[in-house]
């Protein structure tokens, strides 16, 4: 958005969000400004001010609702299109959502509205783009899955929160965006493959710098969606579950959990803090995009592994017994996480994630190969030993990144130790 006219037009569009009540949903020329005009994340954060969002939230909530619906609809269209991905448009959808969601979470007055708006099934709108299921493989499959989902609920669309979480996870595995273009198939551009070699994969996919930068932006959105507990008091967290996190850890499809979990772990453990950027005061000259990606991978990994649902005690024990019996039945399956082709296994062979308190911790506890543990240990050691090695090289490492790594990798090891205390 280098041209002054474009910036001015976008800024006027932001003003309209709170200056005009009930902006028509049919005003496509207006709504498309939000994903066509910005050219960078700085444009969004500079021109969509915090005061502007709060004004729209407090005085014209209906416009904010329409904007969110339009962004979700546009993301759905982009992800399901058979044409090459419009990268800038998908990025802008993620950026605008990342910008406005925290201002919804921060307001106690919006708590009831948020539950109703994001987590209540919606009546079928025949003019809207149908949201695709998380495991879409083809157009016909999408129609069939959507019809199957809608039938038991009298033709209701899934809640917006579920759709937005699914779209965000799909965006992390989108060929031509967060994956190399070659990873797409004839049936779908979404392909749940592991980003890096390591746990679960020995075949590199050849990711580019652009893929890493796009992953960073999508992970920012996912981090925001999973951050609702930051805006709650400790006492409130203990009595009411986080619907966003609950959906992520207990309703996400198994193959997505495995691909996501292995991608986060491998990307983090393969990071070399020295690399070719080991020059004095390099953080002043430039920012390493890989370092930003690793920090976000660790942050999201820590969030999903640390979350425990707040179910009643008797329900909790019931779920634990179900998961325990399922785990016993699968104890001899040595390809659960250790091999990439485990992701392609029939979902019926594994317990459904809804029977687990946390699917990410469950599958992480299945790690058992010596080379996987060695990979984790080498990755942890390489990063945490860097400060001791760089004193003579004048390399300055961000302390917060090391802290995230320490916290992020403590949880996987603790989960493994808890589930396999005798090993």
UniProtKB/TrEMBL annotation:
Gene Ontology terms: cellular component: Golgi medial cisterna; Golgi trans cisterna; membrane
Top-rank taxon, per record: Eukaryota
InterPro entries cross-referenced by the UniProt entry: Hid-1/Ecm30 (IPR026705)
Compositionally biased residues, Polar residues: 135-144
Region annotation (Disordered) ranges: 135-155
A Pfam short name: Hid1
Transmembrane segments: none
Name of the protein this chain belongs to: High-temperature-induced dauer-formation protein
Source organism of this protein record: Mucor ambiguus
């Amino acid at each position: 958005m280098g041209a002054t006219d474009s910036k001015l037009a976008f800024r006027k569009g932001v003003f309209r969000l709170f200056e005009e009540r009930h902006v028509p949903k049919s005003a496509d020329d207006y709504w498309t400004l939000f994903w066509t005009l910005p050219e960078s994340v700085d444009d969004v954060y500079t021109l969509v001010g915090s005061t502007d969002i709060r004004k729209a939230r407090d005085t014209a909530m209906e416009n904010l609702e329409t904007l969110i619906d339009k962004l979700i609809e546009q993301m759905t269209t982009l992800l399901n299109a058979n044409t090459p991905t419009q990268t800038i448009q998908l990025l802008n959808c993620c950026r605008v959502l990342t910008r406005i969601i925290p201002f919804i979470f921060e307001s106690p007055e919006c708590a009831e509205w948020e539950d109703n708006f994001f987590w209540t099934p919606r009546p079928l709108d025949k003019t809207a783009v149908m949201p695709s299921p998380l495991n879409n493989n083809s157009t016909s499959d999408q129609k069939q899955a959507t019809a199957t989902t809608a039938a038991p609920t009298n033709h209701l669309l899934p809640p917006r929160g579920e759709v937005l979480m699914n779209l965000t996870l799909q965006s992390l595995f989108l060929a031509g965006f967060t994956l190399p273009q070659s990873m797409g198939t004839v049936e779908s551009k979404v392909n749940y493959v592991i980003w890096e070699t390591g746990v679960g994969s020995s075949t590199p996919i050849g990711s580019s710098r652009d893929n890493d930068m796009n992953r960073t932006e999508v992970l920012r959105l996912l981090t925001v969606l999973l951050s609702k507990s930051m805006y709650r008091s400790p006492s409130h967290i203990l009595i009411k579950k986080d619907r966003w996190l609950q959906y992520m850890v207990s309703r996400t499809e198994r193959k997505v959990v495995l691909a996501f979990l292995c991608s986060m772990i491998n990307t983090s453990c393969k990071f070399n803090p020295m690399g070719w950027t080991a020059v004095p005061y390099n953080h002043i000259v430039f920012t390493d995009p890989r370092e930003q990606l690793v920090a976000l991978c660790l942050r999201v990994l820590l969030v999903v592994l640390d979350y425990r649902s707040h179910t009643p005690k008797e329900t909790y024990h019931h779920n634990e017994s179900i998961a325990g019996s399922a785990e016993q039945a699968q104890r001899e399956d040595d390809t659960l996480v250790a091999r990439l082709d485990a992701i392609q296994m029939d979902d019926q062979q594994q317990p459904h994630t809804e029977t687990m308190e946390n699917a990410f911790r469950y599958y992480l506890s299945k790690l058992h190969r010596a080379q996987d543990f060695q990979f984790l240990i080498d990755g942890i050691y390489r990063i945490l030993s860097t400060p001791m090695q760089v004193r003579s090289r004048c390399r300055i490492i961000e302390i917060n990144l090391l802290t995230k790594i320490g916290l992020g990798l403590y949880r996987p090891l603790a989960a493994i130790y808890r589930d396999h205390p005798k090993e």
